[in-house]
């Protein structure tokens, strides 16, 4: 564990522990204040630019195609502009009308700036990923956001 990640963990754990330590009878305003402190402490540690991508496979039942796509996404980790990446599949959470878990594979990336995200888009490894894997998916939805 790097020193920075260790500090982030300690900061987050301390903030969460402060909320847990509040008595059940604590005034709601105390809980809100504590959770706001936690939120601002952890929010400042996350890179400000998120790149969320959802993939629907041409052959949704194909474990081979899913594995190829995931391997392609794993190759993107070598791009230096990416601060961190999460590659996943739909979670088996409670079914609710607001949840869309119809995708097959997802990717969530963090970038330090919009410029870094733009550089990622034109990076040769990203271009190679698109070239090699585009035939695997029938639909892609991308959502980019920046912290407020």
From TrEMBL:
Q: Which UniProt keywords apply?
A: Signal
User: What Pfam families does the entry give?
Assistant: Dabb (PF07876)
Q: Which organism is it from?
A: Alteromonas mediterranea 615
The protein's matches in InterPro entries, at most eight in alphabetical order, are given as:
Dabb (IPR013097), Dimeric_a/b-barrel (IPR011008), TAT_signal (IPR006311)
Please tell me whether the keyword Translocase is annotated for this protein: no
Annotated signal sequence is 1-26
**What range(s) does the Stress-response A/B barrel domain occupy?**
49-145
SUPFAM superfamilies from the xrefs? Dimeric alpha+beta barrel (SSF54909)
Q: What is this protein called?
A: Stress responsive alpha-beta barrel
């Amino acid at each position: 564990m790097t020193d920075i990640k260790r500090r982030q963990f300690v900061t987050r754990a301390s903030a969460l522990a402060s909320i847990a330590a509040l008595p059940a009878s604590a005034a709601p305003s105390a809980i809100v204040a504590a959770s706001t402190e936690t939120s601002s402490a952890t929010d400042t540690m996350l890179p400000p630019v998120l790149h969320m991508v959802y993939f629907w496979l041409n052959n949704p039942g194909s474990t081979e195609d899913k594995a190829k796509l995931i391997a392609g996404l794993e190759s993107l980790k070598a791009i230096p502009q990416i601060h961190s990446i999460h590659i996943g599949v739909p979670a088996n959470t409670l079914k609710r009308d607001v949840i869309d878990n119809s995708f097959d594979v997802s990717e969530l990336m963090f970038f330090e700036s919009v410029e870094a995200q733009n550089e990622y888009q034109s990076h040769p490894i990203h271009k190679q990923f698109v070239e090699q894997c585009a035939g695997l998916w029938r639909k892609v939805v991308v959502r980019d956001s920046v912290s407020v």
